[in-house]
Amino acid sequence: MPRPSTPPGPRLAAFDTPPLSPQSHTTTLATLQDGADVEKSPSTDEKDVGDLQEVPGEGKADEEHESVPTAPPPFPDGGRRAYLNTCGGVLVLLSTFGASNGWAVFQAHLAANQLKDYTPSAISWIGSVQLFALFILGLPSGRLFDSGHFRAQLAVGSVLWCFGMYMLSLSKTYYQIFLSWAVCQGLALGILFAGTLSCVGSYFKRKRTVMMGCTAGGAALGAVVFPIALNHLFETHGFAFAVRLIAYLHTGLLILANLLMRPRDDIPPRKPPPVAPQIVSFLRQPQTWFASLGCSFVMLGMFIPIFYVQIFVKEHGASETVVQYAAAILNGSACLARVTVGFAADRWGNLTVALPTTLLMAAVIFAMLGVSDSAGAVAFCVVFGIASGAWVTIMAPSLISLSASVREFGVRSGVGFLFVSVAALIGSPVAGAILRATPSSTGTNYTGVCVFGGCAVLIGTAFLSATWWLQLKRKGTWRV
């Protein structure tokens, strides 16, 4: 009996797979005639299938293209290439975002030395502008990845980061430090961050949040190692030597990452659809606004303790040893949380896990006011590190969870990052301004800063709760 013919269209014969059973939940990529990839999850549960379909009013242009019934390449969800790629992603974030998360050490040193004539608010602008560049470039970076330019992204971002570190070692004035750290390294972070996570995520479906959490754990690991090393090297060898030595280490790690990381070659690059219509359609949905505002308010409060932790514990009775290791303790707890929270998020949903995480973070920021000795400082660093590390891991997956298909991942997260970039830009400088405006006869008054940060995170939690409720009604399950 002759086989029925199939419609013409692209086919990846090397990845032919047997038919899936009705009960199978294996996720694949269905190749469209226009080259786009749509995530399909065969299941007898109509609600699960509906989660991956276009919602009414969106993606009308896709109706012209029917998926070709050919066997598409599955997510590897493991294998040598996938795990080597993840290792490369860990090295990228360890070198870049790990050093960025250690800004508290730089802020404390600069405030006491090169920039001692500047206010805490002015100094914190350097770290804030770097974070702003990281998040504002999330959308164009994701688009470059979708277009198949990740190898170039990785190389250019690595060169920019290392160049910025070497220039920072030579910097002595405010504008030189600003150009090196905020501008040059901020651009490098923006180019590298989204593409690195997207490349790791493209190899996994069932393990995606876990493996992205492990990758993000590299940033927390770097934020443990580099503050300890820098605090010691600043005292023994000076600022220039310390930064230059870290720059040599980053150069070696990023070269190794460039050798390890490869985008998937079984999915041909495609020209992304026009971004403006997608953004307009997303902004018509209430959950987009609630999720984006929720993430931005949480980040508005979260970076305040991260930037000021070393100065804060020093002024609140902590011993010299605790002061020196405060940033490392905080980020060590964050590292553990980033690796483990992915298991909970994969089981119960990213937004479901995000709500108790942000509530805990708000409570700990308010509890900063009770720190008065070394034990309290250590307890604060540990608990806040757990909450902040968990949140950083599930923030991007929470934004992505609103997507109707894999083609929306980059734009969905990019829109959310636009909101977050504003919060990252103004959060720490506003905190510095509050510190300056609320002096105390016994030292720096942190009451206003703690109230500002805690309330910002609570407002963000309220917005995220509204997002969770809308997604619950849309999907019919609380695991969203």
Describe the structure.
- With 480 residues, this protein is mainly α.
- The chain has a single domain, classed as Growth Hormone, Chain: A, CATH 1.20.1250.
- Helix content is 70%, strand content 2%.
- It has helices at 46-51, 80-95, 97-101, 103-112, 120-136, 138-146, 150-170, 174-201, 208-237, 239-260, 275-283, 286-314, 320-348, 350-367, 374-400, 409-437, 447-475; strands spanning 28-31, 37-40, 439-440, 443-444.
- The strands form 2 sheets. A two-stranded antiparallel sheet has the order 1-2. Strands 3-4 form a two-stranded antiparallel ribbon.
- A hairpin with a 5-residue loop joins strand 1 and strand 2.
- Helix 15 packs antiparallel against helix 16 and helix 16 packs antiparallel against helix 17.
- It is globular, with a radius of gyration of 23 Å.
- The N and C termini lie far apart (47 Å).
- The model is unreliable at 1-72 (pLDDT under 50).
- It is found in: Membrane.
- Keywords: Membrane, Transmembrane, Transmembrane helix.
- GO terms for molecular function: transmembrane transporter activity.
